[in-house]
Amino acid sequence: MPPTTAIEKVTLYDLEQTFSLQETHDPTFFWECQENLPPLTAAEQQRLERVQAAYTNLERRSVLENTVKLAVIAPLLDLAGFFLPPFYVDTEKEVQISIDDRGIQLRGRIDILVLKQQIWVLVIESKRAELSLKVGIPQALSYMLAAPSIEQQYPRQSLYGLVTNGSSFMFLKLLRQPQTLYARSREFLLNQDDGLGKTLQIMKRLGEIVGAG
Questions:
Q1: Are 41 and 144 in contact (CB under 8 A)?
Q2: What are the CA-CA distances from residue 139 to residues 7, 166, 205 (Å)?
Q3: CA angle 118-145-151, nearest 5°?
Q4: What's residue 106's pLDDT?
Q5: pLDDT in tens, 27-76
Q6: Segment 109-123, tens digit of pLDDT
Q7: How far is the C-alpha of 93 from the C-alpha of 86, rounded, in Å?
Q8: Residue 153 is part of a domain; what is its CATH number?
Q9: pLDDT given at position 176
């Protein structure tokens, strides 16, 4: 890896070699996206139907990254309660990771970051509709590895990520100690098996877990 690398160019192999990152397939590791998901109200279901209708209208043309944020991610953040205390949302946050013993620096900007005080709660990486979620996974994990809350304040604090291209959604979980492990959720599809509803349920569940901490 070059001494200074844009996070957009980082691969999973780079993260595995540089940070000893390992993927775990233990089904109990990412329990947060499987257990005790909160039910959705009729009003929330109706709002999701509008989001789905908006995306269906937009996908007739090329759905740009910023359009995904406006039409899909912003309503999900609102419905999940992330625009209200104790959370707040930051966008285009500049991030730098330095690996001092190797002289390596990674630099990039997080699309959307949800925080509780100074603790990073949820990193969201959005892509164009035409791109696979796999493109955004190394980028999201890089930002999650940069989270100050994991390394400095809460070494055993889990951190969560969401990668989306507007029609597909995948959650990530990272735990830094005692090993640097991550897991992926299954892929949720906007137009299949209530994928958008499941995505909102998981976002609400993560908000409950972190908000109660």
A1: no
A2: 6, 17, 24
A3: 55
A4: 86
A5: 899 999 988 899 999 999 999 999 999 988 888 777 677 888 889 999 99
A6: 999 999 988 788 899
A7: 19
A8: 3.90.1570.30
A9: 84
Q: pLDDT band at residue 2, thresholds of 50, 70 and 90?
A: low
Read off the tokens for 11. Answer: 């691969």
pTM for this entry: 0.91
- The domain tally of the chain equals 1
- Rounded to whole angstroms, the Cα distance separating 63 from 205 reads 28
Element (H, E) at 199: helix 195-211
**Rounded Cα distance, 72 and 80, in Å:** 12
Residue 102 belongs to domain spanning: 4-211
CB of 12 closer than 8 Å to CB of 156: no
Residue type, 163: V
Tokens coding 5: 């690398």
- The rounded distance, in Å, linking the Cα atoms of 92 and 108 is 9
At residue 163, does pLDDT exceed 80? yes
Q: Helix, strand, coil shares of the chain as percentages rounded to 5? A: 40, 30, 35
